[in-house]
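Office hours follow-up: a student asked to see two folded examples consecutively, so here they are.
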Amino acid sequence: MGYRRDPRGSALVTGRSHVIGLMLPHAHSFATPDPFYSLVAAGVAGGASKAGYNLMLYTAVAEEEGPRAAATIDRRIDGLILVIPPEGSPIFDECRRQGITTVGIVQDPARSPLTVNSDDYEGGRLATEHLLSLGHRRIAHLYGNRDNFSNEGRYLAYVDTMREAGIEPDPDLILEGGFRRDNGFHSTKRLVGMPARKRPTAIFAANDLSAHGAIDAIREAGLDIPGDISVVGYDDTWYASITNPPLTSVSMHVDEIGRRAAELLIGGIEGRLEEDHAVIPVSLTVRQSSGPPPHS
């Protein structure tokens, strides 16, 4: 008979809009070359659509933009997913005040009732064990931003796995990669500038963009990958397959993180939570950027 439900009338009766919000860390996250954010958004959109919810995008959750972003939150949404939210953001208080359910992606579970993270410790262990199994002993680590929750697990796993293999990590081989290509490039220039006997034979970078910067710096120094230095990244988005050589990377299944966050949020909205803190398993994809160390 051509009947269509009026979402405004339904919202008045049920008290729900069937709309969830997604807030990325910065306004430029929507156009960044890092595919992490677009894959998270795609996963959230897919999970929302499957449950019959629409998706509203918000501009930023970053600390410097927090008060302005908090002012945009209202009851047009039933819940909000925040990607890499900073500690102490006023958005959380505003959502609590309005009774809006929130889920944090890449957030310390101790600071939010609902979170979705990847198993970063396991990912760091997989990357480091892979390089150790190839025979590497001088393994450098380009860590991410210290205020990013995912950084700690990856770094601690690198340190623990090296020590379990009887190798004390060299502080000179631990530099900031910053989750950015330019940071990875400049940090790796410092590494490849070391005397040959001190230079690392492998680099574990905290994400694929940082690893790509490392590849560029190694090539600029006239060295071969993986003949002279192996490189392993983290994320394993499509980006890892277009580097030269293709990048060995820890797959954190980014779209699955987004989809699981949507499911968790909607479960909280509808009062049918099955878990509070989801941890998505990781795996290692081996490509041409990693190989045995060069012979002495």
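And the second, which I mentioned at the end of office hours:
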Amino acid sequence: MKMTPALIAGKLLALAIFTVGAADAAEIKVLASNSLKTSLEELGPQFEKATEHKVIFTFNAAVPLKAEIEKGVAFDIAILSAPLTDDLVKQGKLVGATRTDISRSSAGLAVKRGAPKPDIGTTEAFKRALLEAKSICYVEQGATGIYLKGLFERLGIAEQLKGKTKLLPPSNPAAHAVANGEAEIGMTQISEILPYEGAELVGPLPADIQLTSVYPAAVGTGAKEAEAAKAFIKFLTTPAAATVLKAKGLEPG
């Protein structure tokens, strides 16, 4: 029988996961950053089919999710940005031995589909694009938003941008707001721009001011389904998962 890419991926998946019977099926609660939302929504059902486990996702900006963990919310796996994950490991909320880098993501700029794309090829061009825009937006509590606040201060444009900046809640991602005409320019992780048909990626932030975020997964210290959670993390590092991550604007590992 000819080994097609789909068959090869299937065999790799089977080798990578410890498959269990229906009697051992678990319900895995995963708290994950919005940057991995579209990837995990595709990968979750694949894992469920292979293992008979069920994966329940809660997506949000990483900072609010970390706050929920610190308050004692029940979960099995957290997939947040590296600094937040490492702090939760130090607090004893996550098991350090299970910490596994899943993906890397870069920040980008979005405009409404069909709108003119500004030049953001250099830092000076990026500054000019923001200053000339009628309005800009980003999620205030997201990792990108927190970074942008500091970046604008360093670039000396924070005061000039204040009057035309819309700070969004996690429930209204920047690309969604741009697609709806709420702002001319939106900034967020590239993986959070690509899913919105009404928005278009202009490009990544210039290399010298780029924010590259690493997203590790780790099992919670109070996880009820620790073994199943470890299996899901292992699955997220397989070649089959890497293919999905790349298609969604992320780099594996």
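Two things to take away from it. The chain has two domains: 5-104+214-252, 106-209. The radius of gyration is 19 Å.
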